[in-house]
Amino acid sequence: MNNNRPINELFKGTAQYYSKYRPTLPEEIAIYLKKCYNLDGKGVLLDMGCGTGLSTFALAGLFEKAIAFDTDNEMLSEAKRLQPTNFDIEWQLRSDKELTTDEGPYRLAIACRSFNWMDQYTVLQKLHKILEIGGGVALIGDGSFWTGDEPWQKEIKIVIQSFLGQERKAGKSNYAAPTEPYTITLTKNGYEDVQYKTIPVTRVWDVQSIIGYLYSTSFSAKHLYGEKLYAFEEVMKERLISLNNGEDRFIENAEFTIQCGKYL
Fold it and tell me: Edge-to-edge strands of the sheet including 192-205?
């Protein structure tokens, strides 16, 4: 594995915050995918860009085995630490570029909060050769505080920009957003019965968990602030509490999206 890939720096130092502060997947995602792909406890799940295993743990019970890979060894260490004993999961340190056409077969391949970092067309073409007939690909996401619509989330973005600049960071570089909806990407790459599903979620945050979440991201990782870290925390706390009339309780109305297609 080429350890010089820039992607390995994207989430530097974020693993402990990721496992503690990133929201888990609602049960409705597993229910939806089970019905969509007729999952019956057999076959193998492939989790691409698994992070600390939140998506792997949410879906592993629908399969005999899960194979989960990530480019960040700290993320995988957290995943191994948190793994339930009743799941058969193989953790792999690699990237989507190292996906081969002689592995598998996989019943379902997923990417949760990670497909935007991948060579998307190449991955989807490779998966054609290693998916079971009737299986497919599910791309799962829930946005971020950077793109959130709540007034306090917009304030968070303003504070981050005042410290790190107007452009959204991706580690030491700037973020490049996807150029098309994933449903289009799936269709262009030969997947059929392409679906777009939304699952509403309501979350409650406080200042501590908000800052913890921010430190789990590539656009607001701790190391990006350098000597300004303490000042960033103090400004963020003051602005959030002031905006919320002194209350340390913040409601988020968000949604998970599932964009998926079948290999037929």
Answer: 89-93, 65-70, 44-48, 106-112, 131-141, 250-262, 192-205
Classified as helix, coil or strand, 77 is helix
* pTM listed for this prediction: 0.94
Name 36's Cβ contacts closer than 8 Å, sequence gap at least 6.
138, 195, 260
Amino acid found at 19: S
State which amino acid sits at residue 176.
Answer: A
Write down the residue that tokens 């289009």 correspond to. 184
Helix ranges (H only) for the chain are 15-21, 27-37, 54-59, 73-82, 120-128, 151-164, 182-188, 207-214, 229-243
Residues 6+ apart with CB under 8 A from 264: 133, 134, 192, 193
Provide the token pair at 256: 């998970």
Strand-pair category, 106-112 with 65-70: unpaired
6, two tokens:
């820039």
C-beta neighbour count of 108 within 10 angstroms? 27
- Token duo for residue 261: 């297609």
Q: Which domains, and CATH codes, for the chain? A: 6-262 (3.40.50.150)
Query: Which two structure tokens, joined as six digits, stand for 192?
Result: 């059929």
pLDDT tens per residue across all 264 residues of the chain: 333 444 457 899 999 999 999 999 999 999 999 999 999 999 999 999 999 999 999 999 999 999 999 999 999 999 999 999 999 999 999 999 999 999 999 999 999 999 999 999 999 999 999 999 999 999 999 999 999 999 999 999 999 999 999 999 988 788 888 889 999 999 999 999 999 999 999 999 999 999 999 999 999 999 999 999 999 999 999 999 999 999 999 999 999 999 999 999
